[in-house]
Design goal:
This protein is an alpha+beta fold. 41% of the residues lie in helices and 18% in strands. Strands 1-2-4-3 form a four-stranded mixed sheet, with helices on both faces. It is globular, with a radius of gyration of 14 Å. The mean pLDDT is 89.
Length: 128
Amino acid sequence: MSKLLFRPKHRLTHRRQFEAVHDARMKTPCGPLTIHSRRNGLEHPRLGMSIGRAFGNAVERNRLKRCLREAFRLMQFDVPSLELLGSYDLLITARRHDDPGMDQYARWLSEGIERLDREWRKREARMG
């Protein structure tokens, strides 16, 4: 089994990557989180977060980002992927909410990825 790391290759880093995920127009709400996705053609998933000031102060935003990164790090090998189409780029946005804890973030992230994977498979089946 591979190490559970969160390296730079697992991150969305440039504006054009974030825009590409938005342009794919595939998203799902999971509790206070909204997860956007796009096929990336890579063997591994990548994560990006866009947490605005409306969420809270810097301490609250950074805590949320740490929790989401940790949840992603622990479940990154469970993210579905197809040999030819690759894995997913995931972009997470959040509405203001009380901190539910690490387990709940992991549950929301897992549920959202499962839903998005089903939707992507439906879309790909329609496209032929």
